[in-house]
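step=encode ok
step=design start
structure_in=
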């Protein structure tokens, strides 16, 4: 349920033999002057200068730089990856303390000592995995219609990712299995999964999300696992799954009306015939194996090659046109049924 966390360390000590890398400052060609600052003094008192210092590993990134008028240190990591091989599944409540302890231990072993319990959260991502009945593309049109509260911007990435965001928060829905495939992770045993992530992008938003004046690691633990789970669930229910099923069906009807209006404006008096033909061709091109299967069927009927070519061309054109209007995959379920499935599972998912 917790994923990415960014921490601003509240005080730190660096040992002389630390694993930090110092990045030199910029050099002005005209004067040869190096633009850098004192980043820290190690435990022997030696001052270290540069643009920034960093230490990155597979599961933890640490950076020390000059920001907001002072030197600041940050630690960023994925909570599930502190416990598990990947971040597909959430950690257990009993593992939260272990995750933070492992971060503090890794920093210490790298020569950076700090009391992580006093570190302040500057980013907090929570997530919920929903195992879906349909393929991800089937939900595309639904996500194209819906919008999270107070998110002025909306982006779609291919057919597997939908992002709604403002400057302080993001609501991201994506195919988790496809994302893991992209990173060459083993997904053989995983079910079809949509990941719903809510991201608080700065400390002010984290504090507002949890209703705290200042959110330190210590305060996050006090907030409680059950409270975090409920906050994650209610955020999606109140800001995204806020409609009743009939309202979604009305939205779907409005979308179909928009498609019909396009055909009406484009094809004149024969717009309905053209719409029905395009819709039928689109359905044929996207179901039962798609255009390739249609071609094989025509081949088996000993249809001449020119007719097959023209049919494939018509199907491709209809598919392209309807996809540009509909922004969804294919499913025998109505949008209301797809929405009801996800809404119910969001309520029930732990």
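sequence_out=
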């Amino acid at each position: 349920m917790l994923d990415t966390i960014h921490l601003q360390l509240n005080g730190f000590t660096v040992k002389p033999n630390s694993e930090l890398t110092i990045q030199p400052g910029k050099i002005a060609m005209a004067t040869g002057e190096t633009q850098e600052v004192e980043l820290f003094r190690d435990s022997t008192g030696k001052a270290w200068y540069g643009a920034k210092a960093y230490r990155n590993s597979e599961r933890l990134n640490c950076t020390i730089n000059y920001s907001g008028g002072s030197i600041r240190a940050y630690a960023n990591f994925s909570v599930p990856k502190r416990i598990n091989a990947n971040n597909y599944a959430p950690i257990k409540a009993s593992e939260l303390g272990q995750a933070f302890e492992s971060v503090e231990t890794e920093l210490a072993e790298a020569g950076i000592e700090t009391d992580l319990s006093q570190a302040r959260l500057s980013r907090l991502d929570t997530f919920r995995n929903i195992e879906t009945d349909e393929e991800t593309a089937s939900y595309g049109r639904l996500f194209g219609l819906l919008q999270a509260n107070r998110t002025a911007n909306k982006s779609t990435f291919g057919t597997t990712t939908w992002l709604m965001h403002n400057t302080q928060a993001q609501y991201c829905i994506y195919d988790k299995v496809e994302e893991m495939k992209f990173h060459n992770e083993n997904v053989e045993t995983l079910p079809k999964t949509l990941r719903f992530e809510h991201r608080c992008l700065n400390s002010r938003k984290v504090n507002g999300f949890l209703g705290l004046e200042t959110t330190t690691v210590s305060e996050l633990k006090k907030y409680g696992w059950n409270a975090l789970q409920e906050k994650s669930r209610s955020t999606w229910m109140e800001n995204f799954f806020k409609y009743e099923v009939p309202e979604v069906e009305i939205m779907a009807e409005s979308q179909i009306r928009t498609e019909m209006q396009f055909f009406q404006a484009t094809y004149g008096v024969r717009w309905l015939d053209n719409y029905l033909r395009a819709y039928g061709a689109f359905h044929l091109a996207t179901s039962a194996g798609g255009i390739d299967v249609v071609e094989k069927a025509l081949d088996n009927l000993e249809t001449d090659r020119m007719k097959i070519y023209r049919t494939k061309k018509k199907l491709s054109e209809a598919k392209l046109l309807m996809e540009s209007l509909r922004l969804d995959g294919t499913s025998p379920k109505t949008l209301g049924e797809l929405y009801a499935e996800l809404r119910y599972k969001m309520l029930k998912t732990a």
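step=design ok
step=annotate ok -> The CA atoms of residues 139 and 328 lie 7 Å apart.
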